[in-house]
Structure formats: C-alpha cells, structure tokens
Amino acid sequence: MNGAESLVHTLLRSGVEVCFANPGTSEMHFVAALDRVPGMRCVLGLQENVVTGAADGYFRVTDRPAATLLHCGPGLGNGLANLHNARRARSGIVNIVGDQATYHRPFDAPLTADTEGWARGVSGWVRTAAKATEVGSDAAVAVQAARTAPGQIATLILPSDTCWDEGGAVADPLPVPAVPQADPLAIRNAARTLREKRNVLLLLGGRAVRAGAQRLARRIEAATGCRLLAEGSNARMERGRGRLQLERVPYPADQALAALKEVEHLILVGSRAPVGFFAYPGVPSRHYPESASVTVLARPEQDAEAALAALVEELGAPEAAIPDPGPRPEPGRGAPTPEGLARTLAALMPENSIVADESVSFGRGFFRESHAAPPHDWMQIMGGAIGCGLPLATGAGIGVQAMRDSGGGDRRVIGLQADGSAMYTLQSLWTQAREKLPVTTIILANRKYQILLGEYRNVGANPGRTAMDMLDLGNPDLDWVRLAAGMGVEAARAETLEACGDLLTQSCARPGPFLIELVI
C-alpha cells in the first residue's frame, strides 16, 4: 500500500465521504488511489475557489467535513478566499494539498511555494507529511482537527513522494474532543444581569441560531423581557414557521448604531460583540454603546444550546410559545423589489429549503418579509470575500443528496446571488449540471457593484465617470441565460416578480439545476 492509498482508506474510515477536487500533476497518485479505493464521492470543481466554497456549504448542511484536493501552493492560493469565509463560518474542512517531492523541493522548481505559510492564515491545523508511513496517521489527526468544535479547517500538505512511496498504513479514527461547556459562573452572571438590569440584549450566533437553541432563547426573552437579535451574518440559521422571527444586526453602520443605541448590557451566545464591517471617517468601530457591559455566556466553540438550557434552569423560565408570524405571504407582483422578492420566496419555497444567500445589497431586508415562510435553513456569506454563493449552493446540493441517500428526504437549494460576485465563481454552475444538483439560482442582475456605490459615498465621495466605470457591469451586459447554458444549466430571464415566481415554482418541481436571471 502506498501513502496515497493509506490516505483514502483513513479518510473513509474517519467518516470523510466526499472529496471536492481540482487536481494537478503532484496529486496524480492520490487521484489514482481514489480510483482504486471505493467509497469516496469525488466532485470536480473547475477552479479551486469553487472547491473550497463547496466544502464549506457541504459542512454547513451536514455538520460533517469533506476533503478538498488542491494543486500545490498556487492551487491553495486560488481557494483562499472561500477558505477565509469557511473559517469565519467555523466549518470543518480537510484540505489535501499536493506539493513537490521532498527531494525535489531544494531545486526551487516553478510551482514551489510557501504552502504552509499560505495555509496558516485560514487553517486551525497545518502539517506537511514527512514520509509515506505517516500519511495515514497524519490524515486521522487532520480529520480530528476538522471535527473539533465548532469546526476547523485542517490542511495536510502531501509531497508527492509521500503519496507514491510504499509503506502506507491505514489509521483508525481518532476520538473527537467533547464540545466544551459554558462556565457555570458565566451562566450565573448572565442570569443576574437578566434579573437585575434593563435594556439587555441576548445576541445569538453560531449554533445558537438553530431551532432548539431558539426555543430556549424565547423562554428567556418571555421570562425576563430581554431583547433577542442574531449576528449580522450567520453560517446556518433555521428560520420560518415554528422558529423565532429573529432579525440581524444591520450591516450599514448608521443602521447598526441606531438599532443598538439603547443597549446597556450585551450577553453573547456563540457570537461576537458587533463591530463595523469597515471603518468610516468619524464612525465608531464598535456598534454597541461604549458604556454597555458585555457578558459572554458561551464562546463560539462552546455548546450554546446547553448554555441556554442551563440559563433557562437558573432563571426558572417557563415554557413559552414561539410567536405566530402570521399567514404565509402572497407572492410579490410587478417590478422586482427586495421586499417583493422576499415575499415571493416565502410564498413559493418548498418546505425545508436551503437558501444560500450572497444577495449583498439587494437582500439586506429579506428577513423581515420572510418570517412566515415554511421551515427552512438560511446560509450567508461569513467573511466578506465575495464569490461564495454559487459554491455554497453547490456544496449544499451535494450535502442534500448525501442526506437523501441516507433517508433524509428531498430538499431544494435556492441561491440568491448578486451578479457581480457570481462572476468570481461562475464555474460552479458546471459542477451543478454535472452532478444534477437540486439547486435553483436567482441571479439579481442590476449590472453594477451596487454595494460599492454606497461604500463610495460612505467615505464622502461622489462617483464621477472614472469611478462609475469601475463600479458598472454594463458595456457589455452580462447575459446570464447564455452563460448558464454554456455551463449546462437551463436558464430563463424574468423582468417581473410574477415571472420570477412562475420560474421558481417550475424549477423546484424538477430534479436538476436551474437559473433565473432576475433583471432588477
């Protein structure tokens, strides 16, 4: 058995069953091992940032790490943007990165790079295999690291001779460390604040925005009168009927400051204290009052739901019903607006849909209009590195197929995708077509970097001709129907919400991918 074969056997034995791949020469022995050893689903992405973003989406849906296969340091470099987003989402991923053979590295061949250095900025664990006999044990440690709460990126760098040399040994899975529990003192401190203080905000993030944790937070809200909010971006929030009507900390600095200005006491549950996405002249970096006290109930790596359960017990908070969001809305009509599209989505999405949201500026108000939708999951861009939406939806689609095959039922993935950021990872559509993924993509085609127009004004400037040219996607216009067709995905254009709704309904009734170009 060579090192590559021991790697595949160990990954499978450790529960890693999907490999998102874009291989090169240094990885051919790993590719050959994937061919010889049955059990691994191999999903080809045509660019590494598709591969890493898909692994992120897969973890968010399944709570299980996938492997990636990346070609040397530059291939890792191509995937860094979505690894940055995945790190912020606290997703577990096992990166397998090829490298020069150990004896070839001193010759400084063209692809030689500081692969470890590039990996460290996005990884919680990094190791370069030294010899074939250790590849299996290294892989077992990598999976253990990826599965360590709340989820980490583990990067294993494989010099090519560690793959082709004989002597590989399959390693047994390593135990996953228990999820750390919140400090009892932190629970008592939070309870004291909730009992004795006014204007308390319970800020939920991470796994605290899952349904079970939401029910506990609702009991605390009802018993104490505190306020509930979610972080501005969330890796996977469970939403819709039967879940809390949670709003998020707004993205625009002025709106965030206004929303939080009355907060006197901030309790963090799997979240971080709100700060600005960017700095602006004369605007504070903290978006909560300087005078507010901050209490950490549960850090992101701790068990947020258990912490909320302990807080409920400490407060003696009785059961409390989730408020009814009212009837399911009617689909929007007429020209596309953010509110109308949100109502259309809420009215027509299938139950248990998964929304992959990279709608950027157009989608900031979607939550308010979609609380009465059927139960669904909502995933957002976490690190601000654009180009995550299409890969997220792709990985989520693979996750849906994996769960369906194990009895989890059918689910539809709906991508809400700004047109500018979609161009960063357009190749995702090809993978969706090849794998016949249950993904409907709604391209929000405003043909400009709308968010940057706002940011340009936020720094006190008015865009002139040169600036407008750099923020405009026209001349020529992008034709998403033809672009999708070129990737093998059927597509159609909609200019009204009625047309968008009809296409959404039709696409959700079919098994494979579909793209709607919504002209806004």
TrEMBL record:
Residues 319-338 are annotated as: Disordered. The keyword tRNA processing does not apply. Keywords: Thiamine pyrophosphate. It holds the Pfam family TPP_enzyme_C. One of its GO terms (biological process) is small molecule metabolic process. Residues 373-517 form the Thiamine pyrophosphate enzyme TPP-binding domain. Residues 1-106 form the Thiamine pyrophosphate enzyme N-terminal TPP-binding domain. One of its GO terms (molecular function) is flavin adenine dinucleotide binding. NCBIfam families: PRK07586.1. Belongs to the TPP enzyme family. This is Acetolactate synthase large subunit.
